[in-house]
Here is the input.
Amino acid sequence: DQQVKQNSPSLSVQEGRISILNCDYTNSMFDYFLWYKKYPAEGPTFLISISSIKDKNEDGRFTVFLNKSAKHLSLHIVPSQPGDSAVYFCAASGQELIFGTGTRLQVFP
Amino acid sequence: DADVTQTPRNRITKTGKRIMLECSQTKGHDRMYWYRQDPGLGLRLIYYSFDVKDINKGEISDGYSVSRQAQAKFSLSLESAIPNQTALYFCATRGLENTEAFFGQGTRLTVV
Here is the structure.
């Protein structure tokens, strides 16, 4: 069973609107969560993270929300830009660093 | 120069052949990881290492082995490659547990 799940394989959003990417996890021992962005033919690059002692972390247009009781986190991108089009992975950290299946975000003009 | 370097970048090999993918890093990190990426399956953890003497199996270690030759080097081997090991392989490094991991550019492996 996958410990980290991203149930939406793809998301299409108009430029300027909000993009919301979701992620669920099953292991309550995870205490640190990360979001990565990946372009084709490149390695994933770090975007933003959150510790389990927080419920929100913001960095410019990117905000990550954590709901520990629901074992759910989300990434909000506001406003969305065409350059944000990529695959986004969430990851959860305990002893291991486990990634989700990814969500392909397309931002159209 | 990249902080995390993977070689080769692309490789085509035949079924049954042994192949090694190499990863080196200049970040001075103790933790190193190997992942494979498949369409629809995301990044799955193969092996990880917290230092030269500490090697751990990940989610999908069967058919793979690793070697941590030094703090900066972590190699992944396929002892007898099979077609379903065709994938994009990524190496990553990390300093402390609750920090970001840094990825290499990836190795595209095709087993025919």
Q: What stands out?
A: The CA atoms of residues 10 and 78 of chain A lie 18 Å apart. Chain A has a mean pLDDT of 96.
